[in-house]
Specification:
Two copies of one chain form a homodimer.
Chain A: H1 6-14, E1 24-35, E2 59-61, E3 67-71, H2 78-96, E4 100-101, H3 126-143, H4 145-148, E5 153-159, H5 161-170, H6 177-203, H7 253-265, E6 279-282, H8 288-294, E7 298-304, H9 316-331, H10 339-355, E8 362-365, E9 368-371, H11 372-390, H12 395-409, H13 415-426, H14 428-445, H15 458-470, E10 473-478, E11 483-488, E12 491-496, H16 506-513, H17 515-524, E13 532-535, H18 538-542, H19 545-548, E14 553-557, E15 567-569, H20 575-588, E16 592-596, E17 601-608, E18 611-619, E19 622-624, H21 631-638, E20 644-645, E21 652-653, H22 659-667, E22 681-683, E23 695-698, H23 705-718, E24 722-729, E25 740-746, H24 752-755, H25 765-772
Parallel strand pairs in A: 20-21
Antiparallel strand pairs in A: 1-3, 1-4, 1-5, 2-3, 5-7, 6-7, 8-9, 10-11, 11-12, 13-16, 14-15, 14-16, 17-18, 17-24, 18-23, 19-22, 24-25
Helix pairs in contact in A: 2-14, 2-15, 6-9, 6-10, 9-11, 9-12, 11-12, 13-14, 15-25
């Protein structure tokens, strides 16, 4: 009954466009009601961290103040859009703190109708604000506030422009390019409308409703069994729909627009966006008039429920299948969609939404009764045919067919069935709350990740997350280089590796890059930097005895291993002792360093805009004994911390139990099986790098004001906007006199260490950088 | 008669200070009269390129507007100071254009007394200006303008502070540190004063005088033979001296100061600087009062003539010998210097200056008559003793002894004898003019070099020279890194590699550093950048046929050799042709590039401060036939150009006759011995790099305004202050439409290529950068 257009398929093959069929742009929009941990809608305001809701392109509200709307940017693949949605949801979830996202299309426990808060607008642009407020008032009066809370997922998609162009050029069409393109999209709309009952059947996931919603649907108290065949309340008569079913012709864009215009003119609709069809044409440039003027840029598929079985309300493979359905809709034989076929599809949707899990259910197909199951299998077969034509390089598209065929074969495999069974077992609210909390936990564990871009530096990921949170637009210019563009209103900033920004001038960076020059400038500003010299020839180093013999110095190989080859002279020393120390160092490396010896610990003081933004001490990988556990056990326990990961994907690294750790323990006469007495700290590494399992300890609230001033003075000396000052001191809380030394200035300091330390507070460095950039 | 202080020598040895004896700070000041090519003093003003003469620390005027004074900064070695002097002299010589520096202490052809222009001051600070003008008026009236024109060389030197400190600490001196140090310098002054006749004998080099000077010395017309024993007119009675010989005690700093004060108070001197002694104490902080308050910082040795035999007026080995004399003066047995011994030394100086080349000349030494030659040999022996104590690592100090002993043994070897003989042969004016012109030519050939720092990048050297010219202070922070500090008044700028400055912000540089990001930004600004892609796997490249098959492309290995492996497709091409081209490219390299093919030549457009500062075309190494010469001969002829050098020491490289050149000629069926017909241009290289002998051709005055605008627009797109825009175009003079492409933006463009092109004007880029930096 479904036949592919063989001519079109041949044309695609002739032009080698099979792969281009899969290309396109994708975007996802999703609404979630905010709830408390009892499953009740909360009436708190939209978080101020999300900035102005009219300007934030990622996070805003929909009808209600309690209804967060998340919007991905336009993406080049489904994966990218899906990952972006997860990122946005993680940001929202972590920010709303003590509240949760209700993981379902139909509402949670609701208060009375008039207690449901409408979205509030506080923009300075009065007209915008009044329109936004008035529109919500209109909807509340017309449909009721409870109904308006029904939430869903919209998928936006467009075909690849190059693909349409090539197809157009090799067609014999008499149409203009724009007409040709519009017609392609209208064809997709017709076929998707015809197949929409299948989408509802497969992905519908709102089979049950809470009793506080009954009144908006004229329902009495019901037993759960009443819902045993329901698939999607949202897509049925109790869902959020136009009060009357309008016929809007899909045979041409012109007729479509005229028809909607007439309904607006006759007062049936306040605007085109009040027409709640399963799929909508869209323009990048505005509303109906823009479509009329410039044509269709993309389509919006509107009938996906929020599926509580998945954190994001939809499984990614569901989106793949829908993508294949869209391609199917494009390359199917076209057939006219008249008024009766239009209403046929609307009725089919309602039947499937409300009774879709009944065995032997029938719907109408071009006026004939057909079995839903047989028809569904036929659709799956045709999709498989499409997959074979495309021969997609992305394996996933092939692999999902079997899964969805299983759903078709047995209604028990449908999402709606699984949800229904779980609600029956656990209760409507309990089931959903458990899911909401689990998803929030998952978000928390990924709160430093820009999903899908975990290969980028954590510092950059954190900056991106903070940008998304406040609605600063992010564009990745070069992923490998961690190079991003940030924009808000008319302002554009280019940032590399989170801390390389336009706020630092080039010569400042070059100064910091050159240790010799840095030291000269620090010293000329009256700051203490340790003396130091590099030697590659032992005879030259030997001659310098008389320069060093009255100083505290450390002689060390350029690269060090377990302290071998290092000699520290704290008092005066003989020339023989000096020469022996040089021999030892040169045995380890061709290059040795003689440096002024400074006692103390090395703190990283992050200075942004001449203010101390964070102070951190890095401590070598270590465990604390409990009197019963072995070092191995203590390490494994410590590694469970969600901040610890591998390969720099998380703020801290797991402590390894490898050869360097074993050797370092051996030096202490310990091994991995040694049991450590209570409260004794054992170090597994000499170096304090985070990358080898070290701990980061926040000292921001502890450092003395005068040492803070030293760090700020160093920043000013080189004219830096963002700088990591490595400060050596014996007493971080003490007055700065001669008891410190500046080891190095880092022009590209990591920020994640200050945001997610092992011990201490999140110093919100991403936000401080955005503030610095005036974004 | 000269005995070293054995105790002091022992103390130096005990403290391992032998090498430290040679350490210290050095500075040179030199005056030269400006002349025309007839040997006449010119009355033109001091060049405006030298900025405000009261602020330029390197180049100013002395008594007369026609008398350039060159001042090196404080240097850490004699070599450094000597090189600095050469650099300054080169800058001056090239800038004064059509004028020359008179290479002699006694003046050139002079006009009448009252036609000699006094130095003019145009500073805004009225008091400073009035004082400077009044002082010169006073001197003109008191000594006469002609006498004031007598020029010389002053050597400033100080001992190493660490050295003095260590010596003081191991001495049993009852003095304070400051007294101890002052006394060390006073001792040097006493001994140098006593030995100054020897310095005049050895280095005096003004044996003859021009007749236009006679009147200021009450001389009649003289035969040249009258000067046959003269060594230094300048240091004799005809030189520029105080009208009366004052006795100024040197036994203590206190007495010295008191004595000078008395002469000022009695009106004999207008200030301490009018006391023209052979050596003077100096303070870094000001005049006599500063010395009184803070002690002596350094000494100024004032009796060196300008030696016409050397470009800089002094041979560097002369300075080494003087340095040894200073050390000798320090470690000699001290002896009282009373009034009679003081006058004895003044008389000795006069005798030696006026009759120093007489055989068997005698002078007084502590009241006794001694033979000058024997005494000179004794001094040389004692100097050798000093050298043996120091055992200097700088070989030069050892090697010069023999040379100067030869001078002592035979008066014919004295500089003054050599000069006298040459003047006798060629004439006073002719001899000196020839020298002046030769030295000017030498300066011209080194006009892009910061002498002694030729290992630094030419661009940095040029910037430094331009800074010196206008009086911007230069400090080298890291020589290897070409990192310098420029300062003027209270402003400090750090510059690396000439074009990396504070005027560019870091993200601008990072954008340019990343070709991918640069292209994105150029394209979003509506500028044309060629499409391009890199492939490391042939199968991935093969799949892209349908992306490229309707474009002009070039397929090439990442690194190219003689064009092997490069295929250019200008019209449509088949998939087979495409795959063959990929194979060819992959045979040469693991990485290949597919790029949009742009026809034309690649121009470097240097944009500074959003204005086009220079446009350059680089042309591969080539020669132009003359119908008779072989390629080898043509290359050798072309390589004679002073702009061509080796290893990047000069703006252009010599064309090589190596294997690559040979192979490239073979491809053209030519070899090194081929004779080329007249006006035929033969290329010896495929690539147009300057580093392989390419030519640089200036197009700054030729490029069309609209292509200029394109370059400026590219600069603005990335927000650059200094950028090298590599612009590909078929028609540099044409309107910019689609006929160009921006290949790359360089954030560190070389500047020397625009200053010293093979053909075209010096675009003075160093000056433009200084202007950009507001220096």
């Amino acid at each position: 009954m479904l036949n592919l257009n063989r001519e079109l398929v041949q044309c695609i093959k002739d032009n080698h466009l099979e792969n281009d069929l899969l290309k396109g742009k994708f975007g996802i929009e999703k609404e979630n009601i905010r709830i408390n941990n009892n499953g009740e809608l909360v009436k708190t305001p939209h978080s101020k961290h999300f900035g102005d809701k009219l300007l934030n392109p990622y996070i805003t509200t929909d009808f209600s103040e309690s209804q967060v709307e998340m919007i991905t940017p336009v993406c080049n693949s489904i994966d990218e859009a899906y990952n972006y949605l997860e990122t946005i949801q993680n940001v929202v979830s972590v920010t709303i703190d003590n509240e949760f996202l209700w993981p379902e299309s139909v509402p949670p426990i609701l208060p009375n109708e008039n207690e449901i808060p409408l979205a509030r607008y506080n923009t300075n642009e009065k007209l915008v604000k009044n329109n936004a407020n008035m529109y919500r008032k209109y909807l509340a009066d017309k449909y009721g506030r409870k109904k308006q809370l029904i939430s869903g997922i919209h998928l936006n998609f467009s075909l690849d422009d190059d693909f349409i162009n090539k197809l157009y050029n090799s067609s014999l069409s008499q149409l203009s390019y724009r007409e040709y393109k519009d017609e392609m999209y209208m064809k997709i709309m017709r076929n998707i409308t015809r197949l929409s009952w299948f989408i509802i059947k497969m992905f519908g996931s709102s089979p049950v409703i809470h009793e506080t919603y009954y009144d908006s649907c004229n329902l009495e108290n019901l037993k759960i069994d009443k819902f045993k065949n329901t698939i999607s309340i949202r897509n049925g008569r109790c869902g959020y729909k136009n009060i009357n079913n309008f016929y809007v012709p899909l045979n041409s864009l012109e007729n479509y627009i005229t028809s909607i215009r007439e309904m607006i003119d006759s007062g049936k609709l306040i605007g085109s966006k009040e027409y709640y069809s399963v799929i909508r044409p869209k323009s990048n440039k505005g509303n109906l008039s823009a479509i009329e003027k410039h044509g269709i840029d993309y389509l919006e598929l509107r009938l996906l429920d929020i599926n509580p079985l998945f954190k994001l309300g939809v499984n990614i493979s569901d989106l793949y299948l829908i993508h294949l359905l869209i391609i199917l809709a494009l390359i199917l034989e076209d057939s006219e969609m008249n008024e009766s076929l239009f209403y046929e599809s609307i009725n089919n949707n309602q039947v499937v939404a409300e009774k879709g899990r009944m065995d032997n259910l029938k719907i109408n197909w071009k006026g004939k009764r057909v079995d839903v199951k047989s028809m569904s299998l036929h659709i799956m077969d045709t999709i498989e045919e499409v997959v074979n034509i495309i021969d997609p390089p992305i394996e996933t598209y092939k692999n999902i067919i079997a899964t969805y065929r299983d759903m078709v074969i047995d209604n028990k495999n449908l999402y709606s069935s699984i949800i229904y069974e779980q609600i029956k077992q656990k209760g409507f609210i309990e089931f959903h709350i458990k899911k909401a909390i689990d998803y929030a936990k998952d978000s928390l564990s990924k709160r430093f990740n820009f999903i899908g871009y975990e290969d980028m530096e954590l510092s950059t990921q954190i900056l991106i997350l903070d940008a998304i949170k406040r609605g600063v637009k992010v564009e990745i210019l070069d992923r490998n280089d961690n190079f991003i563009m940030l924009s808000a209103k008319d302002k554009v900033e280019y940032v590399k590796q989170a801390t390389k920004t336009s706020k630092d001038n080039y010569s400042t960076v070059l100064i910091m890059e050159n240790k010799l020059v840095t030291k000269k400038i620090l010293e000329s500003s009256g700051l203490k930097a340790p003396l130091g010299e590099e030697f590659t020839k032992i005879d030259l180093a030997q001659k310098e005895y008389y320069r060093y013999n009255n100083k505290n110095i450390v002689i060390k190989p350029n690269s060090t291993n377990f302290g071998i080859g290092i000699t520290i002279f704290k008092e005066s020393f003989t020339e023989d002792e000096y020469k022996t120390a040089l021999d030892l160092a040169f045995q380890q490396d061709d290059t040795i360093l003689i440096e002024e010896f400074i006692e103390g610990k090395e703190y990283r003081v992050l200075v942004i805009d001449n203010k101390v933004a964070g102070v951190l001490l890095r401590v070598p990988a270590n465990v604390k004994g409990d009197g019963t556990s072995s070092i191995k056990q203590l390490v494994m326990e410590k590694n469970k911390n969600i901040l610890r990961g591998q390969n720099y994907r998380k703020p801290l690294e797991k402590i390894k139990l490898g050869i360097p750790e074993k050797m370092f323990l051996t030096q202490q006469k310990l091994d991995f099986d040694s049991v450590i007495e209570k409260n004794r700290i054992v170090y597994l590494r000499e170096n304090s790098n985070i990358s080898t399992g070290g701990d980061s300890i926040d000292y921001t609230d502890v450092i003395s004001d005068s040492l803070k001033e030293i760090a700020v003075k160093a920043s000013k000396a080189v004219g830096a906007s963002i700088v990591g000052v490595d400060l050596m001191t014996k007493d971080i809380t003490g007055e700065a006199t001669d008891n410190y030394s500046i080891i190095e200035l880092n022009f590209n300091p990591a920020i994640h260490i200050h945001c997610y330390p092992y011990k201490g507070k999140n110093r919100k460095i991403g936000e401080k950088i955005l503030d610095l950039l005036n974004l």
